[in-house]
């Protein structure tokens, strides 16, 4: 790879959070030292002007303190820097600095130091021009064939060419049919200005035609005055290149000159009269270019930088060299630095300045001789076993999937069969729908699918639902009568967790009492326990794929089981799995009177913390939605104003509307990202809330020994929604359902039954009312209240609750 990388000779990083563009770099002998060594002049949009004279001790060194000759901060952003003969009465080089509303010309000089600190450099303002219009770029040259001095031409944002004869303003001309400014250069051979318009045309204007044309300040004159005072501005030649131009440059060689234009996809070489000499289609999006004369080869070479961090060297249309840069160049120059000719100077938009050269460095590395030795097979076997052990341990913590096979069997012939499988997120399926044409009678169809965890939180349920819709044809209806068959299936616990070391400490602990002797955990959880480990008879550790650890302990003497974890919601799946496996175990032993009870306190405070966390994320979602709406309205208003400005035949200043549009766009993107992140957090919080809610329902049912119907009422009350939305959320739905229970079957008096509940649900201001009603529900149940769907009172009010049987 060393063959195709630019050899770093000297580099530095300019400032912090500064921005640069193609006009911010200039390489010339700006201090008129006469030694033939160029200096690097860089200006930034933050207004910093820096001049460097690199002197690396060895190639690849960074900047030393003495390499920076001058650094001064000007008040205005620097759009472009150029070096030329800009001061009358002398042919010394001076520095021209273009600001948005000002052109300044400085003299750079150095004073020989008398002490060890070295020479001192400073800039002196020779003159400046205040511009009436906002500048875009500039070019310079001996306009009109003058000798020994350079004139300056500035292009404004509204299409006016302002020409300055050094210390004095000469005249200004508007370009015909102007919409947006493009790159601008000057050809001394034809004495003409060449630019690329927004119509994707290369246009040439003679200096003499500009000088004799109607003055830009006399646009309001009458037609008779225009005819007597000047001529209409016409182009010398025009060429349509079919794309926007990034830069334009004129190179003179062997008594001829060529115009090079860098487009978005091609670069063009034109003759003086606008005819195409050649063009080259580029493989990558270009960022800058520099045509230069190769005296040794007698040709014109072109350096082209692109957005792939590459710098290509073309000789006409032939690619001669390609080199890798550490950054995307926005400006490239060639200069003579420290007696080294042809140093390539590149500048990135973030301020990475690098001087490099093309070539290769010889590789001094020699491969050492390999020592021959006999193979020790026993040592290799031990190493292989260790590696296999490491691989086995690492695969335990990776995401797993479970293969399920679902079989469809029908006693009758059916048609148009469609099988849909659903699991609760964050669980996901490889396939969720299967379609069959026809199934003959007494035949079966089997499908295979995998279930896996897709997310960073455990699910609230390990159950799936399979629904088959089909049609049974009859004699009267050959198309078939639509029917539906449905079944539920359980998913294994190993899908979301794996065995782990038990933890001795935990923030949350639950104790489940039973009426049967304790069962060995090795027998209850054979898929998690090691049969040879006697310690796992009474204690077992689980670890979710998301990282949480849960410990299960069985008492040796009493009939109790303890589940403990750092998070309340993580207790739910293990607790449910424990009770389910205990019931299955005693069913196999034909023990019908097995029961589980809970005598501890229901962890309502920890449960309320999860409710508050979920509710806060819902409020944040509302805030993000309001802010996005406001920024969208602002964005559309700015777009309308910009569109009005662009449609206007007489272009007016944008008044920073483009800056405001870009700032608003960035705010919208940032708000959208924040809203998306909040939505993901809210989904996780709702999943955790459902797990904790299921745990609370189970503890209440074990505590009060509720029947199956009463547990169903409690589940419909606390889990009315499968998913949370801004229009109808969990908090208001549960609050309305609990209020209905407190007013009907759990009411204490007829006064409470006479209370009228609101029929419109909306997001509450806080969760204090909901938490109060949940606490009151537990108190009423503790005092003997019982859940039922009917009441003895005569007052009945219909409540529409989504998914809740309590509202029927």
From TrEMBL:
One Gene Ontology BP term is: cilium assembly
**Which segments constitute the PTHB1 hairpin domain?**
602-704
For this protein, the parts annotated as crossing the membrane are none
Domain PTHB1 GAE span(s) in chain numbering: 406-489
Q: Which domain of life is it from?
A: Eukaryota
- List the residue ranges forming a coiled coil, or say none: 370-397
Query: Which intervals hold domain PTHB1 C-terminal helix bundle?
Result: 706-781
Write down the InterPro entries for this protein, in alphabetical order. Answer: PHTB1_GAE_dom, PHTB1_N_dom, PTHB1, PTHB1_CtH_dom, PTHB1_hp_dom, PTHB1_pf_dom
- The PTHB1 N-terminal domain sits at 1-362
Annotated keywords: Coiled coil
Q: Name one GO cellular component term.
A: membrane
Every PTHB1 platform domain range: 492-599
- Return the protein name: Bardet-Biedl syndrome 9
């Amino acid at each position: 790879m060393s063959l195709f990388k630019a050899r770093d000779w000297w580099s530095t990083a300019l400032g912090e959070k500064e921005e640069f563009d193609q006009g911010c770099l200039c390489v010339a002998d700006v201090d008129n030292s006469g030694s033939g060594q160029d200096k690097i002049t860089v200006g930034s949009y933050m207004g910093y002007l820096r001049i460097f004279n690199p002197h690396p001790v060895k190639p690849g060194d960074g900047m030393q303190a003495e390499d920076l000759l001058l650094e001064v901060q000007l008040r205005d952003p620097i759009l472009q820097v150029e070096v030329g003969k800009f001061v009358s009465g002398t042919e010394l080089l001076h520095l021209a600095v273009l600001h948005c509303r000002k052109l300044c010309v400085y003299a750079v000089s150095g004073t020989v130091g008398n002490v060890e600190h070295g020479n001192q450099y400073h800039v002196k303002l020779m003159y400046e021009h205040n511009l009436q219009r906002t500048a875009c770029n500039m070019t310079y040259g001996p306009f009109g064939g003058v000798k020994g001095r350079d004139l300056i031409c500035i292009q404004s944002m509204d299409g006016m060419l302002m020409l300055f004869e050094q210390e004095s303003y000469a005249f200004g001309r508007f370009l015909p049919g102007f919409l947006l400014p493009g790159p601008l250069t000057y050809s001394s051979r034809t004495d003409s200005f060449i630019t690329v318009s927004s119509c994707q045309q290369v246009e040439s204007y003679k200096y003499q035609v500009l000088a004799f044309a109607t003055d830009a300040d006399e646009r309001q004159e009458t037609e008779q005055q225009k005819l007597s005072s000047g001529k209409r501005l016409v182009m010398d030649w025009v060429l349509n290149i079919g794309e926007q131009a990034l830069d334009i440059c004129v190179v003179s060689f062997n008594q001829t000159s060529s115009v090079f234009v860098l487009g978005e996809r091609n670069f063009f070489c034109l003759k003086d009269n606008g005819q195409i000499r050649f063009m080259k289609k580029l493989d990558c999006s270009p960022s800058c270019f520099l045509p230069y004369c190769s005296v040794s080869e007698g040709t014109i070479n072109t350096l082209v930088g692109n957005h792939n961090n590459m710098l290509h060297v073309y000789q006409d249309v032939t690619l001669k060299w390609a080199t890798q840069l550490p950054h995307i160049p926005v400006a490239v120059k060639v200069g003579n630095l420290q007696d080294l000719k042809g140093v390539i100077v590149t500048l990135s938009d973030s301020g990475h300045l690098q001087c490099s050269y093309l070539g290769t460095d010889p590789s001094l590395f020699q491969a050492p001789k390999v020592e021959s030795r006999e193979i020790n097979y026993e040592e290799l076997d031990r190493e292989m076993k260790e590696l296999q052990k490491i691989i086995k341990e690492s695969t335990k913590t990776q995401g797993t999937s479970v293969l399920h096979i679902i079989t469809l069997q029908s006693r009758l012939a059916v048609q148009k069969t469609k099988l849909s499988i659903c699991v609760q997120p964050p669980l996901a399926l490889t396939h969720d729908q299967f379609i069959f044409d026809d199934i003959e009678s007494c035949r079966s169809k089997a499908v295979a699918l995998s279930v896996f965890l897709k997310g960073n939180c455990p699910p609230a349920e390990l159950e799936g639902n399979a629904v088959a819709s089909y049609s049974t044809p009859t004699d009267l209806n050959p198309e078939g009568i639509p029917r539906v068959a449905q079944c539920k299936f359980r998913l294994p616990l190993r899908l979301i967790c794996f065995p782990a070391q038990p933890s001795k400490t935990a923030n949350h602990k639950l104790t489940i009492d039973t009426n049967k002797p304790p069962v060995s955990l090795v027998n209850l959880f054979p898929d998690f326990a090691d049969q040879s480990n006697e310690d796992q008879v009474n204690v077992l550790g689980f670890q979710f794929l998301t990282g949480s650890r849960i410990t299960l302990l069985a008492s040796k003497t009493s009939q109790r089981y303890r589940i403990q974890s750092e998070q309340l919601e993580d207790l739910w799946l293990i607790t449910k799995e424990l009770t389910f496996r205990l019931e299955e175990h005693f069913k196999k032993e034909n023990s019908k009177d097995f029961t589980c009870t809970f005598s501890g306190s229901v962890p309502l405070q920890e449960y309320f913390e999860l409710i508050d966390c979920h509710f806060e994320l819902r409020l944040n979602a509302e805030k993000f939605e309001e802010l996005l709406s406001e920024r969208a309205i602002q964005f559309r208003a700015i777009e309308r104003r910009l569109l009005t400005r662009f449609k206007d035949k007489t272009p007016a200043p944008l008044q920073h509307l483009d800056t405001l549009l870009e700032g608003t766009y960035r705010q919208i993107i940032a708000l959208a990202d924040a809203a998306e992140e909040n939505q993901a957090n809210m989904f996780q919080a709702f999943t955790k809330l459902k797990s904790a809610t299921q745990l609370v329902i189970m503890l209440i049912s074990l505590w009060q020994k509720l029947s199956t119907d009463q547990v169903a009422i409690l589940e419909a009350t606390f889990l009315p929604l499968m998913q949370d939305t801004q229009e109808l959320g969990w908090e208001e739905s549960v609050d309305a359902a609990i209020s209905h229970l407190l007013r009907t079957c759990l009411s204490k008096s007829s006064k409470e039954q006479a209370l009228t509940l609101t029929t419109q649900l909306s997001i509450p201001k806080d969760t204090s009312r909901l938490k109060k009603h949940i606490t009151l529900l537990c108190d009423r149940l503790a005092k003997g209240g019982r859940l039922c769907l009917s009441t003895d009172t005569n007052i009945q009010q219909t409540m529409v609750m989504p998914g809740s049987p309590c509202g029927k």
